[in-house]
Amino acid sequence: MRPTGSAHASHSVMNDSDEHSGPGTAEPLPSLPPLDFRAVRRRLFAALIASIVIPFAFCCLYGYYTYERALSETGTGAFSAKSRSRCGAII
Question: Is the separation of the CB atoms in 91 and 85 below 8 Å?
Fold first, then answer.
């Protein structure tokens, strides 16, 4: 079976197209600066540490203040009136 005229015509149009240049005629890409893997590794390590330490510190502070608030509400905290009177401090 022979190809129809339209299929044959589109095939020849693709070959005659000037939109695509041949191999090896592309413009060269701009050169990138040399990679400094040591600096990249330091930045990634710092980001890893910060992403672990900062949330952990906030959780510890939140827990500490929650614990202190709970102690002050029950009156058994380190600086409550009951503990000061037991230590002999003058109010």
Answer: yes
Sorted by where each begins, the domain ranges of the chain are: 39-91
Instruction: Report yes or no on whether pTM surpasses 0.90.
Output: no
**b/e per residue 20-55 (b: at least 16 CB within 10 A):** eeeeeeeeeeeeeeeeeeeeeeeeeeeeeeeeeeee
C-beta separation of 69 from 79 below 8 A? no
Maximum average pLDDT range among 14-23, 33-42, 73-82: 33-42
51-85 pLDDT per residue, tens: 999 999 999 999 999 999 999 888 875 555 555 55
